[in-house]
Amino acid sequence: MPSSTGIRLIEPGDAAPIAAHRARDVEAFRPWEPAQPAEFFTAEGQAERIEGLLAGHRAGTVWPGVVLAGDEVVGQVTVGGILPQPHLRRGSVGYWIAGVAQNQGHAGRAVELVLKVMTEELGLHRAEASTNLENLPSQRVLRRNGFSPYGVAHSSIFLDGSWRDGLLWERILGD
What we know:
This protein has helices spanning 15-24, 26-29, 43-59, 106-121, 136-144; strands at residues 5-9, 63-69, 72-83, 90-97, 126-132, 148-159, 162-172. By secondary structure, the protein is of the alpha+beta class.
């Protein structure tokens, strides 16, 4: 994995590079992600989305990060659905890497780093994730980071014109 991979909390200034990646990679992500409105692929649309993510961060329900290759934003890694209550303490990991930076180890390293954030900063006990059944590269990233599959969510997400099953993943943190 590249040593130059890092993560940090998302910032308003990340809107333009994220929009550029997402606009360029729209076809590549079509099988894996829900359809988005046209403004999602603009700097203005991303700025609005980032504002919402940072509001969620202030509320304690999300940790929205960017993935860096050196100083360049090449993707995102997010912990969503954070449940900080003492009897739950879990969050769900999601990530994407721009096409120009794929197959260089950035996703694996970003997940490794966000698991540390979940444990050390957020005090969470359990990490969860979900992948499309056909998304083998993402499943390899999760496996390499200690996640195990534990079930299938049938017809759980509408992607590329049809309802798809999701493979559910878990990892107990601190183990």
